[in-house]
Task: structure prediction
Amino acid sequence: MITSYILKQTRVPDKTETIENSVFSHSEKNTALILYNLFLIVAALSFFPVASFAKPVSAGKTEINIWDYPRWLEPGEATDRFAWIRRQIKAFESENPDITVKLTELSWSRGDEKLKIAALGGLYPDIAPGTVPLLFIKEGLIEPIDTFLTEDDRRDILPGALDAFTVKGRIYGWPWYMGGQLLFVNRGMAASAGITLPADGRWTPEVFVETLERFRNYLKAFPEHYPLSLYFQKNETANFPFAFLYGGDWIRRDMSYAGDSPETIAGLEWMKSLVAKGLMPSDVGGRTADSVWEAFGRENRVAIGAFGLWAVKFLREKFPMDFEIMHFPAPSGKISPAFLGISGLWVFSRPDRERVAAAMKLARFLTSSKLQRDLVRYTQFPTRRSAADIYADVPPMKRAWEVLSEGRTIVPDPRWPRFDEEIESSVQSVLLSRVGATDAMRLAGTRIQAGLARSEGSVHEDLQKGSPLGRIFLCLFPLALIFAIATRQVHLIFLLPAISIIGIFLWYPLGDALMLAFRDYRIGAIGDYTLGNFERAFSDPKFFAAMGHTLLYTLVVVPANVFTALIASSMIFGLSARAKSFFRAMYYLPGVASVVVLTMVWRWMFNGEIGLFNATLRAIGLPAVGWLTNPDVAFWSVMLTGILRSPGGAILIYLAALANVPRSLYESAELDGATPLQQWWHITIPLLRGTTMFLFITGAIDALQVFAQVLMLTDGGPGDATQVVMYRVYTSAFRDFDFGLSSAMALILFIGILVVTLLQKRFGAREELELA
Amino acid sequence: MNRQATGKIYSYSVIFLLSTGLFLTVGPLVWMLISAFTDPICFTKDAPHSMVFSIQNFRVLFTDGRILHWALNSLFVATAITFAQMLFNSLAAFGFSVGRFRGRELLFWLIMVGMMVPGQIVMLPLFLFMSKWGLIDNLWAVVLPAMAAPFGIYLIRQYMDSIPRELVEAARMDGAGEFEIYRRMFLPLSRPILATSGIFIFITHWNAFLWPLVTLTSDANYTLTVGLSLLQDQQIMDYGLLMAGATVAALPMVVIFLIFSRSLLEGMRGGSVK
Result:
């Protein structure tokens, strides 16, 4: 009886104690008073941003919105990478007093997703930057610029640049700048190794490998130095020319898959042989662009690497290096072209023609020859002939231009990001020797081909219609109010505000999302009710990998967290009051920092080249670990961040439960001669069972939803090594636009969470029974 | 060995173990501070692996005057949500705790299911909803969906359930209406849990990232977390500057926590969960 009473206290506070605390204890009252006053002050202060909400738009003016990414730092600017465009917008506004322009700043990491979500929601801007927006063109959202293009423009803009924005004979964007991926060689290192590079910048695979071998012999003396490092990663085309060395390709222009062609396989096998010869690091398949860049540009641990044109700027200013730009190796008489990226400004269509015309005017102004001359600070090539001479006095840019003028672009298809993910993770697995090249590329092929055969359709219009179910649902709230009043259920009225909010902002969208799980809802296929999404989810090896990892994460991290909390709280409990409150507070402290912040710090510590861990390992003479790049280690690194997430909350709950264990039990045990450890094992742990169970269940619910760490630490890679379910849910919706599949996977996860919760109810109930 | 010596060894080793654990969990935050205050030159190859104290990162950060503006936006969002939640959560908790109507537990359970829904799932439908109401790029789009939360209702209801029903009966005898019982009796009695949950709601929404990122589109309306994500360059991470930004985002919460930690943690114990 007593035990049951006490155990219940672990969940519900002692009645009398509660009331005493809040009614009679002055200190408690004062704290609350201070809190309320603080909040009042804060509330008063925060009226400032509220006031700035409404900006009046004066009549007769056309307002247009432009979204842009952070660009270069203008001289004299410390952090503002939008200063240039802001200045140009001002100049444009003073030239065109009837147009006002609003700028939205995007971030490189999440800007693309933000733009997609906004476009789907019908809230797209007037102008956005980027490579040809195939997805939006397919959805019919982009205005062709043909009629706005003058003869002079057509003559001035490079034909290749116009081609890049041409889809089915119409031009969908104002070409702005042109960049591409180049092969960089550390010339200083070559000189010390006694290597002379081919003067014309071209080399055959044989010469290339010979050069690498000479680098290897020179670099032998330095640990973790490599002649060459590559990276195959989503959205990165820098190293494709290596795979296409013998004339291979992923997808040909006629949209046929060529990833398993003998030419491509030969290229992949060639790359694998470089790893086998020790010319590349063994974990090269897991390396990311920034880790390779740090190894090459900052740490000078790699002699040769492929990077975008931006590296020219960094190697001349921030990390000065004597470098050479080379062509990608290719058998003699052939070329393995570098990949070009041509960015422009696109204008979204809308019925308001005046607004479209104004947007065209601004887009043309920003991509004019005069403003393209400023690209010299961005180290990108202009797309207009009349601005082509801006790099006349920069020698590396000449070679860069020579390489890029032979360049090519990726296949223009809106589904490319999905294919890209498939291909890159297969290549990662091949380079890591997890799977044979032919098998991996054939498997990727079957899945890409399934995606290639698709019909036409438009997602955004259908999405914006909303569901009739939702409208009926929204009518329920006034009805509930009437019902409450009619039946004199006054307490229902108390519930109404909270229920309305949770209903409108949680149940309603949740219902909407779950409906999608049973519909075919992706680019090119809308509307049919089907169970195909579940079929596709369960036949997707990535999803299986994700489920496996999520389970592993839950099974490792949750027990680790609960047990450390149990041990820590048992130790804290016996301390003096002061030490107790110190440790209690300090263990809780990291919990107040956001996951975003903590993950940023972890990523910095895991950094392969200059991060805390590897720097320490190197300092004490141990080999560095590919924390996030080695597929065998990466997921354990992710779990490590979960395990070392402070168990502060669990410690609090345990301490509360420990306080309710009656002293008398220990006293009698001590009389019987039990050691403290025995007391802990035989009294404390069994009595805390209910609390432990509770912590396991709530921890599992959290752990099954693990997402932010993965997104920010590894982006699901290398290969499939760190895929988790929430990551698949998020990326299939906002990167692949496959909302049906995304919702189906979310539903599967949700059912899993529900099962765990029901287990809690079950166990909770049994515990009550036992104790009664 | 005598008993006293064993006790001493025991308590020293406990302190040692606890401190080691603390080192591991608080370590990342400390490293963040150290990196933020390290001179940017130490991240270049001119002075590799050295540590020179400097506030250069913060100077760079604060030359951008918008940081303060973003912080004020975060302050508004977090404050508005905190007040709304304290009000609506406590009203609902009172309804669930005192009300005797059919389907009460079913309704309560339905709300609790909301705790299990990962936020990313409802993001797109919610975005469409907000855009229909013209709330995109408006701080209220961040505030509205968070004005009541299942977890808060659960926490406060647990607390209110422990208030003796005799008090309610007595108040009703004296002719008090239900709202009066809520305002005059339950609200003051629940103060500790309200204060505690209030602070934690504030911290959670100060830290929110994904939803504000999606809904806010102009830099005048960005919150601090969203604004700081703009500091990243396209290709190269300036870790020193990033860590300075992370420090600016985390520090106010750490300070609030340290000031109120005593009453907060006591209050949490009273609420008994998390």
Summary: The radius of gyration of chain A is 31 Å. Chain A touches chain B through 151 residues (CB under 8 Å).
